[in-house]
Amino acid sequence: MNNPVLRTGLIIVAAAIVVGLYASLFTVGQMQQALVLQLGRVRSVLNQTGENKPGLYFKVPFVDNVVIYDKRVLDLDLPVQTLLTADRQNLEVDAFARYRIVDPLRFYQSVGTIGLANQRLASFTNSSLRNVLARSSRDAIVRTDRADLMNEIQEDVNQRAKELGVQIVDLRMTRVDLPAKNSSAVYDRMASERKREAADIRANGDQAAATIRAKADRDVTVLLAEAQSKADQMRGQGDAEKNRILAEAYGKDADFFAFYRSMQAYEQSLKSQDTRLVVSPNSDFFRFFNDPQGRPPAAGGKAGAQTNAAP
Question: According to the UniProt record, where is the region Disordered (predicted)?
């Protein structure tokens, strides 16, 4: 009777011991830092500065409470907001921040949770963005002084973030654009400017083309005139040479020359299938038809006869 009771009691005691040990033990990782709270009062801070190493720790069960925070860099994505610059330009700014919890005790006392810390840091960052960028021009924000402005904003936010026990390690603007309406207007103006430049380029091109075309036409006219002049000159020289040769040939054999010229005349004048010549048969044109020697016919021939000839 006593053995089962004793066994049950031992099991209960062992279970209580196990539960007590489980409730009294906790671990702090390499990338974590912890606060040990005793009835709401902070008893110790673990793994904050490296004095307390990460590992296994004890606490009073059901009396102490442990709050774990991450030691790594945390992300803070800011909503896109519209800012007015010093030169009265509206800009849409999209930024982000990276921060680290450097004082977990102050962090716990001021905000307590990551979500509330993100809200407070977003408020600080947006306020600093508005104040700093409102004193700068659009060109300075977009091109010339962007890095210096971001450093100034980061320093300002860090001054206010000390109250939360955090440190801003990086703050950047990922995108700086004009609002949609302004972007459309700027795009239309740029398109108009490009069209005007294109029209100027086309006009200059047309003028250059007309100049080149006129020069080419002038050069063609000059070349044709020079070629025609040279052709006429060469043709004249050829005719003169031909006449000289014909004269020499005539001087060597006048009868043969007369016969050759008559044959050429017959070839040129009797080409058609039905050639009609109204001449006298005794005409000098047909002297080689009447006599191979080309002697003139005897007197008394009929004048005005019609002669049909085919080539």
Answer: 290-311
Backbone angles phi, psi at 96, to 5 degrees: -145, 160
CA distances from 48 to 31, 36, 39, 64, 101 (A): 10, 12, 21, 19, 9
Strand-pair partners of 76 = 97
CA dihedral 60, 66, 72, 75 (to 10 degrees): 180
Q: Show the tokens assigned to 211.
A: 């100049």
Looking at residue 275, what is its pLDDT? 63
Average pLDDT over residues 117-127: 90
Quick check: 229 pLDDT over 70? yes
**Strand 90-101 vs strand 166-177: parallel, antiparallel, or unpaired?**
antiparallel
What number of CA atoms fall less than 13 Å from residue 100's CA on the CB side? 10
Separation CA 121–CA 110 (nearest Å): 12
- Model confidence over 287-304: pLDDT tens digits? 766 666 666 655 544 443
CB atoms within 10 A of CB 209: 10
How far does CA 51 lie from the centroid of its chain? 56
Q: Look at residue 307 in the predicted model and tell me its pLDDT.
A: 42
Of the candidates 181, 174, 182, the one whose C-alpha atom is nearest the C-alpha of residue 79 is: 174
How far apart (Å, rounded) are the C-alpha atoms in residues 299 and 281?
12
- How would residue 277 be classed by pLDDT, with cut points 50, 70 and 90? low
Measured distance CA(310)–CA(276) in Å, rounded: 9
pLDDT (average), residues 36-41: 78
* Assigned token pair, 116: 């509330």
Please name the helix (run of DSSP H) or strand (run of DSSP E) that holds residue 264, with its range, or none: helix 254-269
